[in-house]
Amino acid sequence: MTAPTDDQLIAAAKSYVDALVSHDPSGVPFHPDCVRIEMGLKTGRNGNHLRRGLARGPQFRLIHTIGDFTATVTDGVVHSTFYVHVHPKPLRLSALVTESIEFDETGRILKIVARFGIPRRHQTRGT
Asked: Of these four, 9, 39, 41, 76, which has the most CB atoms within 10 Å of its CB?
């Protein structure tokens, strides 16, 4: 078995970020034991819990767009930054998110560590 490439790891991380907006976690490669830590608190206890949250969780229903996604890989960990733009749209609120996503040897997501900046009004730029 070959280890996943950096591009494959970034694609897996992006599938998670895309699911924040689409609410369709079917393409996200969660490991069954995946956990999510948000601002130091465990907010996801396993892969199925994370899938249910993405599909039906009210905390994700507020997100209407993701912007300015960038990602790098260091030692098999994807470090990403992006802006979440939240409802109601007329308020134009967004927050910077930084995430570190760890993987198993097959490219399944084992751990997500998320941090948020203070929500701010963003300029209208088509996002």
From this structure: 9
Domain harbouring 72, CATH code: 3.10.450.50
**pLDDT confidence of residue 127:** 42
- Structural domain count of the chain: 1
Question: Which pLDDT score is estimated for 115?
Answer: 94
| 39 and 114 Cβ atoms separated by less than 8 Å | yes
CB 34 within 8 A of CB 47: yes
Whole-number pLDDT of residue 34? 98
By CB atoms closer than 10 A (0-12, 13-18, 19+), residue 86 is middle
Q: Provide the pLDDT for residue 38.
A: 93
Containing domain of residue 48, as a range? 6-119
Q: Quick one: three-class SS letters along the chain? A: CCCCCHHHHHHHHHHHHHHHHHCCHHHCCEEEEEEEEECCEEEECCHHHHHHHHHHCHHHHCEEEEEEEEEEEECCEEEEEEEEEECCHHHCEEEEEEEEEEECCCCCEEEEEEEECCCEECCCCCC
